[in-house]
Amino acid sequence: MSNAISMPLTNALAAARSAPKREVRRVRIDWVCVIESLFGELDAVAERVHAALRVQYSGDHTARFDLLHSDMATSIVRLLSAARGGGVDLNRDDLADLAIAGETWARHGIPVDEMMRAWHTGVEAVVDGVRDAGQRHGVDDADLLEFVQSAYMWSDVALVAAAKGHRTAEIELAVAEEERREGFVRKLLFGTVPLSELRVGAEAYGLDPDCDYIAVRARLGDGVQQRKLEQALGFHDSGRRRRGLCAVVDGALAGILIGSPPATVSGVVGVGPRRPLRSVADSYRLATRALMTMQACGLRGAHDFASLGLRPAIAMDSDTGEILRTRYLDPLVAADSGRELIATMRAYLACDMHVERTASRLFVHQNTVRYRLARFEELTGASLRSTDAVVELWWALALSEMDL
User: Does residue 148 carry a pLDDT above 60?
Assistant: First the structure.
């Protein structure tokens, strides 16, 4: 209660509590009349609530929620009867109704703190109406004070129930929004969004439908936190326009970005080429292949498909790789010093087939390198002067690196 309550009213309250039961029954009968009077004046009570809220909020804001304010006024008047006898007990139906009221405010997009401020304002307005009605029905000040105190106590209990309902609805709305966003991202990346819905969906999620985007697919797990990975890739920006949109798709973080992610990002991220929004499915397909190639090669960071060269083909075409490995590497493994021969061939190709540079890298004499090259040709029957043989050998060696 407000500190404005005077001491005489407090004394009157004490006297009222010690009054004979006959007098208490008379007061309760009077309160029934007061409540019935308020039910008969719901429009006036609702307008009182509106007027109080207009002072607190702008007129336009209040006007948008007239229905909510009317429902709130009705609920307050109906449930004030719980405080008539000085108690604050609310039955299960009362609490359920209050939870529904809180859910309704949440579903209208009204934050819980704003709902609570409006509720307190509404209660103040209705209590003022109670005071006026009580005076018209001859309720004395002590009984009026007791009723108002009970009303405020009830209001706190009621507000807790409404806030719980609001929170429940907020969680449900957040889950539903996450599911809708994930569904839109999935359809966008798989190319199943109808063109008629593409622009509408993009605008709804803050994307510029006329921009080109880069698709990404990133591996989760291994201690990588989804939120931090999203931030590192640039999905979260304080600007008005989103830099991208993402969701967890088939166990991986997938989405589109308006700019390239940093190459040094912590994690394993496949990046596709830049494409118009209507064609990002093609970018996502290549981002997925880039991620699979990186996983096969043990690469980290962010790599676009083009930078991986022939590695995506090597990683995907296992049949060709096995044939080449059988032809070029198995004979070396079966021979003496097979590991040295394979290491020499790997260094030889890495040094652009320069014998001198290969010898320096391996810390051996140039003649040793020449001997090993000749031994390779003897065991495999392939000529290192053949472009086809060199390319096939490189493929087999690259595949063996992926298996390490």
Answer: yes
